[in-house]
Design a protein that fits this description.
single chain, alpha+beta, Heat Shock Protein 90, 5-stranded antiparallel β-sheet, 5-stranded mixed β-sheet, 9 helices
Length: about 475
């Protein structure tokens, strides 16, 4: 499948570059996505780490406030701490609520050393025992704090949510409450286990927005760079294609000119050798044929064949010479309509004898600069080909159109041109006729080209072929 992509194509050398550009785009987008995910994950971990630090500071502040504002006054005033007494419980509740105010703390619990809830912002859970909580176990046995992140959905699923509900991401902190070194206490002893939860959904949402910002920005920058690069490649490809087409055209013209030069030399040599003898044979056969026909000789048909073939061969030699050594057209003022009227007069008997309908669409006069004899021959060749292509009782249309670029059109109701060989018809020696030399359209094309015009062959939608001879602009105007 990819074999042709890695094989150099001299005609389209940028195909491989285009393939590399698309492959590079895929790799760049994949790399950008991976880098964005990495950066976003790093940012998420950083945010979570910052929340851990903030939670630890809050836990230390709670520890200090509880010890300073509740533990010491309670011990001094009551002798010991008994949270079952409403006064002590309310005092601790005031200290906790004043400390966590505006810190997005959802719930605070304090466990005793038997894992029982001795205080909670939700009084209904006071007395509950959490025997299997690993964070509490770690705090009691080793005196270490810990964090646990609770997510209501996975990170990938959260990325594709336009909004996150509150409490989607919750941070749970477990911290051992310690007595500070005062009142003769030399070592900090664990008084209980502090557990509180914080809603960090807003911070998590900020990370997701940051992640999408990175992805969108990176993708947009990559697409813009790729688009600019691809436009440069397409532009270079078009310029190179135009240069290759121009080179092929010039090479074709060069080969054609070389062919013409070679054929001109050959034809000149052949014409020099056979033209005079052929003229003698033609004139002699014509005299003998006319004499034998008058006398009723049985050799009349043989002499007629000799005369016809010598005349045809003489015409072929003339065609060779006309194509191999094209004459430079004169720049006289000639009337195209007048030329066509002379052609119609000459071919009128042939048209009427076959019952061919000849439609004419032309103005009273259309003057151009050119060679009357050469244009006569070009128009005659085209009309003659059209008459040969149509069947008896067929139709031929001849149109002469004035305008910015005068145009002569000859259409017929024949079989038309072979679509795949349209560019071959004006070439020398290409013919679809059994007895044709393939020089009629070639000579016509050469004449029109030497007049600065162009010839176009095409097929009609309703059938048949059309030959358009377009003359250069600003000519044919009085």
């Amino acid at each position: 499948m990819f074999k042709h992509l890695f094989k150099p194509d001299p005609v389209r050398p940028f195909q491989f570059v285009k393939f590399l550009s698309w492959s590079s785009l895929v790799l760049i987008l994949a790399s950008v996505l991976a880098l964005s995910v990495f950066i976003a994950n790093y940012a998420r971990e950083t945010i979570i780490s910052k929340n851990h630090e903030f939670a630890l500071l809050l836990a230390e502040n709670l520890n200090h406030q509880i010890y300073q504002r509740f533990t010491l006054p309670t011990v001094l005033g009551f002798g010991r701490i008994e949270l079952k007494q409403p006064a002590q419980y309310e005092r601790l509740d005031q200290v906790v609520n004043s400390t966590i105010h505006s810190f997005h703390v959802q719930e605070v619990r304090i466990y005793d050393m038997e894992r029982s809830v001795s205080y909670a912002t939700d009084q209904e859970i006071v007395g509950r025992i959490d025997a299997d909580d690993p964070g509490i176990t770690k705090a009691i046995e080793r005196g270490e704090f810990s964090f646990r992140l609770k997510k209501g959905m996975s990170s990938w699923k959260a990325m594709f949510r336009f909004s996150l509900e509150p409490e989607t991401v919750v941070l749970r902190t477990v911290y051992p409450l310690r007595a500070e070194r005062r009142l003769g206490i030399r070592e900090e002893s664990i008084m209980g286990i502090l557990v509180f939860t914080q809603d960090i959904t807003a911070d998590y949402k900020t990370v997701i927005h940051f992640q999408w910002l990175i992805i969108a920005g990176s993708f947009a920058a990559s697409l813009i760079l790729f688009f600019l690069l691809y436009m440069i490649i397409l532009r270079a490809d078009r310029v190179l294609a135009m240069r290759i087409a121009e080179k092929e055209r010039l090479e074709k013209e060069l080969h054609q000119n070389e062919k013409l030069a070679s054929m001109g030399r050959t034809v000149a040599s052949i014409a020099h050798e056979i033209r005079n003898p052929l003229g003698i044979i033609r004139s002699s056969s014509e005299i003998l044929y006319n004499r034998a026909r008058k006398e009723g000789s049985p050799n009349a048909r043989l002499l007629e064949a000799i005369f016809d073939e010598s005349r045809r061969l003489s015409q072929t030699v003339s065609d060779f010479l006309d194509y191999a050594r094209p004459k430079t057209p004169k720049q006289d003022r000639v009337d195209l309509v007048r030329i066509w009227q002379e052609i119609f007069s000459f071919l009128g008997s042939e048209v009427e004898g076959r019952g061919v309908a000849l439609e004419k669409n032309m103005p009273e006069q259309l003057v151009v600069h050119g060679d009357k004899d050469l244009l006569y021959r070009a128009f005659y060749n085209v009309l003659s080909n059209a008459l040969q292509a149509v069947p008896d009782n067929g139709l031929v249309r001849v149109g002469v159109s004035p305008g910015h670029r005068p145009q002569v059109t000859v259409s017929d109701s024949g079989p038309g041109f072979e679509q795949s060989m349209l560019d071959k018809y004006p070439e020398p020696f290409y013919t679809t006729k059994e007895k044709g030399t393939g020089l009629g359209l070639a000579i016509t094309a050469s004449i029109i080209k030497n007049h600065g015009g162009e010839i176009i062959l095409e097929n009609n939608e309703s059938g048949g072929g059309t030959v358009r001879m377009i003359f250069p602009e600003e000519r044919g105007r009085d």
